[in-house]
Amino acid sequence: MRLDRILFVGLILALLAGCATGSGSARSRPAAESNPENPKTKAAALYTDLGQKYMAQGKLEVALENLNKALAADNNHADAHTVIALLYERIGDNAKAEEHYRRAAQLVPKSGSENNNYGAFLCKLGRFDESAVYFERAVSDPFYKTPVVALTNSGTCAIKGGKLDVAERDLRAALGRAPDNSEALFQMATVLYRRDDFFRARAFIQRYEAVGQSSADALLLGRNIELRLGNGDAAREYTRRLRGQFPESEQARSLDASGSR
Questions:
Q1: What CATH number is given to the structural domain containing 207?
Q2: What is the pLDDT of residues 35-45, one digit of tens each?
Q3: Distance in angstroms (rounded) separating the CA atoms of residues 150 and 159
Q4: Which of the residues 15, 56, 123, 143 has an alpha carbon 20 to 30 A from that of 9?
Q5: Nearest-angstrom CA–CA distance, 171 and 194
Q6: Boundary of a domain, candidates 144, 175, 206
Q7: Residue-wise pLDDT tens digits, 116-173
């Protein structure tokens, strides 16, 4: 079981329900990491699985009880540390969440999944430079099945940190591997918009929509791009769609507050 965390989408429940992005990393096991044949490790895996299932059901106290049992059985079980980190993050205990994300990454220091997870968490805390180290480690894992996740997370985090050159580099690398990756397309549009490259920003928003995606953020960005290009009709169409599809969103309310049409 490997859990991979996507920074830009709140997928904790999806991950816990077994809908993760498939980050399984085949790797040699460091001395500190669990031996999967050890009975204590098997017990830890069982309790971790139970903890995931209870989290998916919203039974957080029971989930925490099982995850603590997992770590009591085998404190070097990286998956148990990852899942309990997710739980602590969910209830707002960032100190304990970081402790366990960090421990998971220490146990499997070359694993794409654990390094991506810790990087995503650090980015959420605004520790952009620290997060970049872990995203780089994640991408460097030759057995990491979804390096696009870490590349996209890295690019998204670089935008937040104001490093648009790094963001464009990593997002282009992500799109080179997965041209229809919707989040990478949206974030590339964001980078280009911030650089006042509105024609290319429009092209990426159009590609984003062509893969069947729709979000309040993308519709607002599309509107703003068209306004900067002087295309009032297209901007009004984005506004209409935003209010129609996401009437209660913060983005729609921001337009209402400004009296935009």
A1: 1.25.40.10
A2: 767 889 999 99
A3: 14
A4: 143
A5: 15
A6: 175
A7: 999 999 999 999 999 999 999 999 999 999 999 999 999 999 999 999 999 999 999 9
